Protein 1
Amino acid sequence: MAGAGLPGASEVSKAEWIEVKSIQNPGGLLSAQRKYGLGPGEMSAIFLAKELGANPVLLDDYKARKLAKAEGLKILGSVGLRETFYLRRYLTNLRSAFQQLLMRQPFLKPTQLT
């Protein structure tokens, strides 16, 4: 599994509610990556969201979010996901969740959390 050894990898691999899906058109993935300058993870997420009709698509990368929006997809990022979990009472301490996110995601700035 990609990401083995990362925080949460063990929990994800054991979660019964998570389904692994493959992209139906993997041939178009590489050319789309080149065209839009995105990595395989971001491009795969957009491809799969379009194929499955998944909305929202989880993305943090600015260029990926911009492309997904242009493709008619709704977007949810790390910050919005935590806010949603807090509002649905899956998280009890949003401030702590944001602090942990800032420690693990160096691309985020504290101003993005206000």
Note: The chain has a mean pLDDT of 87.
Protein 2
Amino acid sequence: GSSKRFASLAAAVFISRGVPVYLFSDITPTPFVPFTVSHLGLCAGVMVTASHNPKQDNGYKVYWESGAQIVSPHDSGISKAIKENLEPWPEAWNSE
């Protein structure tokens, strides 16, 4: 579905910028990502989710290295950076 495609594209962008990625192939419960980030000592985590919204409204939740979800006011900075960089890098579309 669209969530897997969105996750693959997000992973491809990180990889294209030299950021190591763990991309899990199956649907996981929300606590899985913050636990994994904390347990593996990762710098951050991203979970693709539509949450309680329709599946076409995919978005993602971002977690700090501690496993805590990034929320206000930090989420505003991330949202602003996304909006200012809506044109993806050409290699970002290659999710193979």
Note: Helices lie at 2-16, 32-40, 74-84.
Protein 3
Amino acid sequence: MDNISAQVDKQVGIVAGDVESYWTFAELFDTIIDRWHCGFPPHAKHTNDLDPYKISKTQIDPTAKYVLSSRVSIVRSIRGYRLPPSISFQERRDVERLAVQALKTFPIHLRGYYRPLVGSRSFSTENNGTDETHNKEEDITHPESGPLLSSGVGRHWPDARGVFHNDTDDLRVLVNNVEHLEFISTRKGDGVRACFAELSEALRTFEASLASQNRELMHNDRLGYLSSHLDNLGTGLHISVEMRIPNMIGRPDFERIIRRIGLKAAGNTQGDKFHHTLFVGNLDVLGRSEVEIADAVIEGCARLVEWEQALEKGRDITSELPR
């Protein structure tokens, strides 16, 4: 039932309860996937490429003035278990067990600790677990929005949920949150390439451990990596670059410019234009490889910085903007 009083962002409106949902309800799912991802027909095929050496070497912000932080996240699911909307109590515990075992195999520079949420009894640990009130913004909190709660991801909360932090606290893995797994890498400043490389290595190690346990990630030749939410299909990759570009933001055609360079922007653009920031990231998740998406963000953000510098000097950039 539609709650017209609920103030929510635009969402897909459907979730997959298991991998079979994509084939059993293909007529419905394929139509929605095609529309949501702006053109991905049933005959289309997705390709994946997580090779960090192929990423653009362009520096987004050589002066370290305009980019405040970088965040890259990748969603993954483990084959053989239902997805969060319909996963059973025991299955969720099995996902956590497999994940924790794989996380223990990380190389020294990625190693850290896993903490279940306070109240979870699925995993014994020397500490008292992770209290939601002490989590960082990226960490797990009880779902409160109507769409998330109605999808079933909050069942049996907080059992078998937890967060892995590496020792330098720039790598996190959320276990049994909205999806089975979410790998997150963060850096201060211009760090998209570093985040991408870190996640690439973490995922390679994680998959190797799963293979040793006769398990693998959910993947399909047509849709790429699978998840419960259709906006995480394909790459499951979400890149966010926090930028301070007040002159660009102040332009009346800024939203059009962002769309024309194939990106999206979010954040507070009100108030003093010389102090506000915004987050710029990828639009595409499905239909382009991870390397292609990362390149689009890097090159697009670099152009935004160049235009911001030109505006600071009083130069007209109209002829340089995409039409």
Note: Residues 20-122+143-313 form a domain with the Creatine Kinase; Chain A, domain 2 fold (CATH 3.30.590.10).
Protein 4
Amino acid sequence: MAFAEPGVPAQPAAPPPPDPAVLAEQAINQLVIPMPQPHFGPDRSTIAVQLWTWLWIDAPAPVTSTVELQGVSVTATATLQSTTWTLGEPAARNDGDGFQSGPAATVTCSGPGAPYDASVDWRTEPLCGHMFRWRSTDERTGGSEKWPVTVTTTWGVTWQATTGQTGTATLTGTAADAVAVSEYRLLLTPGR
């Protein structure tokens, strides 16, 4: 126990250092995850059943945030890991001609996907894509004639403190869109 000299006030004890995990939570909460901007290819205005539709978002750069308190600094960095597309049309495949409603089809792709590339054979499955099976008719879509689409990005977050502590977390970002899906038909005419 330390004694102060008479007439000299005792110095208050130094506050404990901040908890790096608490600072990490603050740094993570300050990260601004960009809203995904969905793209459909080759041309969103000509999406049709039984043909590959390319799915991608603009490739975002990693996002960083730093918090500092009492000489302890924590930096959190978020990096895009995957993109999940919920595509509106039912996931269940019916071998007959009858439409069956049900849970929406989903596709999860590593990273942002890749923009449509006209040099790739149109029959080739894209890096991130979906082949619609059902037209987005008025009856099937509640009158909108478009399948609702939700795009969810999953971001891996790593944080590091100047004390040497590290950790991880996960963040998500979501955007909504809708696409019309039509059908191409061949018309054969005899004698031509």
Note: Strands lie at 38-41, 52-57, 63-69, 72-90, 104-110, 129-131, 147-161, 166-179.
